[in-house]
Amino acid sequence: MARRFREHDLRGVTDLRGMWDFAFLGEVEPDDVDVSAIRFNDVMAVPGCFDATPAYAGKRGLAAYRTRVLLPKGGRQWLVLDGVHHWCRVCADRRAIGDHAGGFTRFPMDFEARAGEVEIVVLVDNRFNYERCPLHVGYFDWYQYGGIARGAELHSPQDPFIESLSVATSDWSSREITLTVRCRASAQRRGLPLTATFGDAVVVDEPVDVAAGVCEFERSFRVPGAPLWSPDAPNLHLLHLRLGDDDVRERVGIRQVWTEGRKILLNGEPVRLLGVNRHESHPQFGHGLPDSVLLWDAQLIRDLGGNFVRGSHYPQDGRWLDLCDELGLMVWCESTGWQHGAEHLNDSRFMQAQLTNVEEMVAVAQTHPSVIMYGVLNEGRSGDPACRRGYETLLSRLRQLDPTRPLTYASCWLEEDVCFDLVDLIAMNDYPGWYHHTVSEIPAVLDEDAATVDGKGFAGKPLMVSEIGAEALWGWRDWNAERWSEQHQAAVVDAGCKHVLFERDRWCGIAIWQFCDVRSSEEVGRALSRARGFNNKGIVDEYRRPKMAYDVVRRHFRAARGKS
Ligand code: ADA
Questions:
Q1: For a surface tag, which of 163, 348, 390, 512 has the fewest beta carbons within 10 Å of its beta carbon?
Q2: What is the pLDDT of the chain when averaged over all its residues?
């Protein structure tokens, strides 16, 4: 992905973004495709979603993308795709080099090639096929676009090759940072120079021995006095790591997050999460948002006085996380999911796909200081004892992969929920004033929800409202202020924010459902309950035009943050 800082000085990286050759193949099975016989008769933007363009709007089927790259050096190549929706087969010089299932995550594919031109073809399938891609099921309440939606790069790796670099603040007060480097070498190497600079300071400089295959090592260092990262002062530092002939640069924010009693602490100070749920979706770009739209979104959340965004309901684009790092937005990053039940959580294909999704999510998210917690399975049936094992598996894998961040999941099963003990922060989704009850009853319903959680023995844990909101059609203003009007939505978010932020101190935060309107699933059942086929609970519409609720949220968030 193209980042705001140069990621490599030594490693050759070709950015593959731009126009690719394209062919929509439709109802064809990938196994039946002869890659050399594809007639590429169109072009498509990468990153982008083909089914969000006028020519292919709403189409599901197999599509083929092709580009050519000039390799200065032969040998092992590393193709890195940041998100392909939602199943793909990658071919280099007409040979399949691998399949990948699941959109929204970065995955590498390596292959051998000679110096000179290499042809990359990616077969992309946006159909729902549970066998092939159990992560994406058609009933979700968002439109699942197809295409190479995020960045694409070709890395010509050095040997040894730095496969990943994790950076974590191990102690914010002494400014201690721990690096975990994972590298791959074709043969054992002794006394390889390892150096790391943090800003201008050399913090690691030593010879290391590297074994053949994959090896991992950890180093810690301190940078006394270095400014910390927080939403009010999102200080970032550049770290440059070199191992032999390979290198990687990463941006570091020094900060630690943990929960204590009912609070969530950032560098020892309690923080209140003021934010929105945000889908990465736009009618013109699908899931492949251009930088300018990402910037719009971040600017608007900051304008609201927000300091928090829940990445609903899938892993986030590294470019968005870069922006959140830089502009001081705290992020909840969650695995892909929507209202899964025991039939999925007890299915090994689904669970394996979830585990891969969680691993790929952490690989991208973990270097970002903005990511303050991880979540799994939005509104899964955490109230069903038959689902508990699935929650345990995913949450314990997350803890193992990254023990530095609190864990959560959004629950809509408060009374029945059997998984609250597994998380650090309890998150409740409820829609009083929309699916049930009146606006004036919202405070009482929220109090009852909190009392339910507390009554189950979790009064000592942090609790947040992870979803609350109502639908409003942009521009539909009506004296009756009924459901679907901007007035009604404004009244719902007004009552919710007022109660959670100013009338009680039980909740450590609130995330409005949702930031912007998004296209919903094309399934008939969903379409009939979603005017225009969109989930219209955005406080801005899909083109980011504000509704009345926007100003209401802005007033409350700014007051809560002590701003005018
Ligand atoms: C759920 C879900 C959201 C959205 C919302 C709604 O709680 O988590 O994705 O579907 O409800 O608008 O009903």
A1: 348
A2: 97
